[in-house]
Write a structure and sequence with these properties.
The complex is a heterodimer. Chain A contains 14 helices and five strands. Chain A has a four-stranded mixed beta sheet with strand order 2-1-3-4. In chain A, helix 7 runs antiparallel to helix 13 and helix 10 packs parallel to helix 14. Chain B has 14 helices and five strands. In chain B, helix 3 links the parallel strand 1 and strand 2. Chain B folds into two domains: 239 residues, no CATH class; 104 residues, abc type-2 transporter like domain (abc type-2 transporter like fold), CATH 3.40.1710.10. The two termini of chain B are 23 Å apart. Classes of the chains: A alpha/beta, B alpha/beta. Chains A and B meet through helix 2, strand 4, helix 6, strand 5 and helix 7 of A and helix 2, helix 4, strand 4, helix 6 and strand 5 of B.
Chain lengths: 368, 371
């Protein structure tokens, strides 16, 4: 029996190695993704173009404008005297925000009347709009604080620390999610397709009447993909570390072990999908709906889970990637070990057990 | 023409026969819109705060109350030392720690300046940045209040008044903004993936060789394959638009026929990419992977999820060559801003050009392969 299983695994390995195109895509994918995520994708907003509307420039408005210029987020792209002339700049996409001063800004600052500033923001993308407003307010706030301090008002000096990711580098946050994505893609999708392919071609029946037991067929099918998935995770991790110096503060062994656990969850899901679908095409759509989509969007990889509406937050709990990302971020950014991650690990283990039983169960009747 | 009609009938029969597939095709847009439209936001509603109050005076309690009263912060725990706070950050039960040092009140009274520390869990980078800005606003307002209490001669009227106005989407509605982009993603995935897989499936089963030895001209074969899939993608768009309109109440300010016209043009490019992929690969598995790979890059670089202008220059330049980006722009312009044909003419002509080039290349590649 043992040697039969081994022969089966070897056969499966050959299938994979023979298919150069898929192999190339599979090996190149994590690299391209790391580079794209690292260089091009930022959830943070940078390079905000500011148009200054200042009908009567004075010392204070110039000083505040220089404050904006001094940050690395804002760039002053022009100044006009009426708000109306900013409108075309917005429409042509040449400015993202207008900083509008009322006339007599400095006098009002010196007197009792509050000096008024208007931030007109191109909010057609609400995500960017909200972030832009927050950053602009922070700059003005700082200026106001310095101003009132000179006059002897009370000031609370806030020292802010961004723990675990001091520079708010997006790549540090994306890489753990990326590893989850790669593992899902290889494990769940490839397994689902590969199994349903045997079904479609009728070779699965042949396998099932062979002396191999159903579980052995499944193990033989998933083992090579497990190896492949693991190789991919390591590549992505190594590339991220080499190119972007993404930190791995905790134990690498633990991270790899957890990746393995997550890969097994995804594999079980893949087997389950394959056993309930009949063709490669439906298996693929099933895998797309059941794994890829939730793993990218409901897992907290790009969008924070706390920002989602309540039902989606609850839904995210049954998505394995969500737990894996917490684990991976914990190990990589926080440097914590199992003592903080046992809960998430337990959830993943239970999921594995449930999915494995379910997939083997739903696979079995097919031999009859 | 007769041949084409038979081929079309065959394709449609095959598609309609696959009941599971049809069900998935209807489910896909609904789930995508449901999930994506509400999940894709960086908005921070409430942040969980851990308080380490070492001062324990009226002033320090006042500050904590200001945080609580703002509604943006929920106090999730407090202690007299940093260890439990730090633990809360590690356990992710809190997303920020506010540490008020001893002598906070004394410093305020004596020197009018008191230090304060805030430590964020920057695991969610974007959220931490926004939360930090909210916290700063609360602290400044409180400092002003303290100043007024100390020296009643100065009013606690704000020195500056900052108002913000979001143009073009005053209610900052994420859903309305995201849905046109999600519809684009939907038709792209369906169109490209189905094309690539459909043709490769014939290859894999061996029926492609049979078709190639029949008197069916190559052009009729390709047209017979592409037209049904093109129609399916448009039907998919229709389902998506209906869901968006009646389930999500998305405004549709522009002309719907124009939406379909632009989609029809765009799909030529999307299907062309699918056809091109199908000439390069041998199995459905390969087709799927190559398609996923390409679509993923297109989608991530399209500005759907992260702003294009935060990208480096080379990536912004690359985005100009991305048909997905242009079509998303068109959809948003028509649906949200009510743009007409003239407004979207420029990106539409780019799409048309892209479609012609891709389809020509793909057909030539196909001819070369099959010969």
């Amino acid at each position: 029996m043992r040697s039969a299983l081994r022969a089966f695994v070897v056969k499966e390995m050959r299938h994979i190695l023979r298919d150069r195109q898929t192999l190339t895509v599979l090996l190149a994918m994590p690299l391209v993704q790391v580079v794209l995520f690292g260089y091009a994708l930022r959830s943070d907003v940078r390079n905000i173009r500011v148009a200054v509307v200042d009908a009567s420039p004075d010392v204070e408005t110039t000083a505040l404008r220089d404050r904006f210029r001094a940050t690395n987020r804002f760039r002053v792209v022009g100044s006009t005297s009426t708000l109306a002339s900013v409108e075309p700049m917005f429409r042509q996409g040449k400015a993202d925000m207008a900083l509008v001063f009322e006339p007599g800004f400095a006098e009002n600052l010196a007197s009792e009347t509050p000096a008024k500033v208007l931030l007109a923001i191109d909010a057609s993308d609400p995500n960017t709009g909200t972030t832009t407003e927050a950053y602009a307010r922070a700059v003005i706030q700082q200026y106001e604080n310095d101003l009132t301090e000179r006059r002897g008002a009370v000031r609370i000096k806030t020292e802010t620390r961004m723990r675990f990711n001091p520079t708010l580098e997006s790549v540090n946050l994306f890489v753990p999610g990326l590893i989850a994505l790669v593992l899902t893609l290889v494990s769940a999708l490839m397994t689902a397709i590969s199994l349903s392919r045997e079904k479609e071609r009728g070779t699965l029946e042949v396998l099932l009447v062979s002396p191999l037991r159903p579980w052995q067929v499944i193990v033989g099918k998933v083992l090579p993909y497990l190896v492949l998935a693991f190789a991919n995770a390591v590549t992505a991790l190594f590339a991220a570390w080499l190119i972007f110096q993404v930190p791995i503060r905790g134990s690498v062994t633990l991270l790899l072990a957890q990746s393995m656990l997550y890969a097994i969850v995804s594999l079980s899901l893949g087997v389950l999908i394959a056993s309930v679908t009949s063709s490669q095409r439906t298996a693929m759509f099933g895998a797309l709906l059941g794994t890829m989509l939730p793993s990218t969007l409901l897992s907290g990889m790009i969008f924070p889970i706390t920002s989602m509406p309540r039902p989606l937050q609850l839904l995210s709990n049954i998505i394995p990637a969500r737990w894996f990302i917490v684990i991976a971020r914990g190990i990589m950014l926080k440097g914590v070990g199992l003592e903080h991650l046992w809960k998430e690990t337990l959830v993943l283990s239970v999921m594995t057990a449930v999915l494995m039983v379910a997939s083997i169960r739903s696979f079995k009747p097919r031999i009859a | 023409m007769r041949t084409l009609r038979f081929l079309l009938r065959k394709e449609f029969t095959q598609i309609v026969r696959d009941k599971l597939m049809l069900r998935q095709m209807i489910l896909l847009p609904i789930i995508q819109l449901l999930v994506l439209a509400s999940a894709a936001t960086f908005e921070v509603k409430t942040a969980r705060m851990f308080v380490v109050d070492l001062d324990r005076t009226e002033s320090s309690r006042g500050l904590i109350n200001s945080f609580r009263a703002s509604g943006r912060f929920v106090i999730d725990g407090s202690s007299a030392s940093m260890e439990p706070a730090s633990e809360a950050l590690l356990q992710r039960t809190a997303s920020l720690i506010v540490r008020i040092p001893t002598d906070f009140e004394r410093d305020v009274v004596r020197t009018k300046s008191a230090p304060l520390q805030i430590i964020f869990n920057a695991e969610d980078g974007a959220a931490a940045g926004i939360t930090s800005s909210y916290a700063q606003q609360i602290i400044t307002a409180y400092a002003r209040q303290l100043g007024a209490e100390l020296r009643p001669t100065i009013t606690d009227a704000p020195v500056m008044e900052v108002r913000a106005r979001g143009w073009y989407n005053a209610e900052l509605n994420y859903r309305d903004y995201m849905i046109p982009g999600i519809l684009v993603q939907l038709v792209t995935v369906v169109g490209t993936l189905l094309t690539a897989m459909n043709i490769v499936r014939e290859k894999e089963i061996g029926t492609l060789d049979q078709l190639n030895v029949t008197p069916v001209p190559r052009s009729a074969f390709i047209a017979g394959k592409l037209i049904p899939l093109w129609a399916i993608a448009l039907i998919e768009l229709t389902i998506g638009l209906l869901v968006a309109r009646f389930l999500f109440d998305v405004p549709m300010r522009g002309s719907i026929p124009l939406v379909f016209f632009c989609a029809a043009v765009y799909l030529v490019a999307a299907l062309g990419i699918g056809l091109w992929i199908s000439t390069l690969v041998e199995t459905q598995q390969q087709a799927m992977f190559v398609t996923f790979f390409i679509i993923m890059i297109y989608l991530l670089m399209s500005g759907l999820f992260t702003p294009i202008r935060s990208m480096p220059d080379w990536a912004q330049w690359m985005a100009q060559l991305n048909p997905v980006k242009h079509f998303i722009g068109i959809m948003r312009a028509i649906l949200l801003k009510g743009a007409g044909l003239r407004d979207v003419a420029a990106p539409l002509s780019i799409l048309a050009g892209f479609g012609v080039v891709v389809l020509t290349l793909a057909v030539r590649q196909y001819a070369k392969r099959a010969a």
